[in-house]
């Protein structure tokens, strides 16, 4: 089932406050015993914007079940949306946090 709009923020770990990019939709489902995510990122600016993202996979107690993923680069064209799809690496992952930072942030780790 789709993650309710009011809970998208609870699944995000923002590294700074993105100026132009936001997660506008998030769906999680189980497919073949693995959690699968569909993440929609929207660019509210007319220029292409860059970001970095990764998923922290957790068990039902909130503990990590997999090593930290590498940060994945992402470029979204101006006034566009992009869908990201990712599948958990293990059936032990029953929860997640999306870690996200944009190049144009009030605070950036890159």
**Mean pLDDT value:** 91
Strand order within the widest beta sheet: 1-7-4-5
Helicity level, as a percent range? under 10%
Question: Which value, in Å, is the CA radius of gyration?
Answer: 14 Å
Account of the protein in words:
The protein has 110 residues and is mainly beta. 0% of the residues lie in helices and 49% in strands. It contains no helices and 7 strands. It has strands at residues 12-14, 21-31, 34-43, 49-58, 72-76, 81-87, 95-102. It has a 4-stranded mixed β-sheet, with no helix packed on it. The protein has a 3-stranded antiparallel β-sheet with strand order 2-3-6, with no helix packed on it. Strand 2 and strand 3 form a beta hairpin. The protein starts with 11 loop residues before the first strand and ends in an 8-residue tail after the last strand.
Properties at a glance:
4-stranded mixed sheet, 0% helix, 3-stranded antiparallel sheet, mainly beta, 110 residues
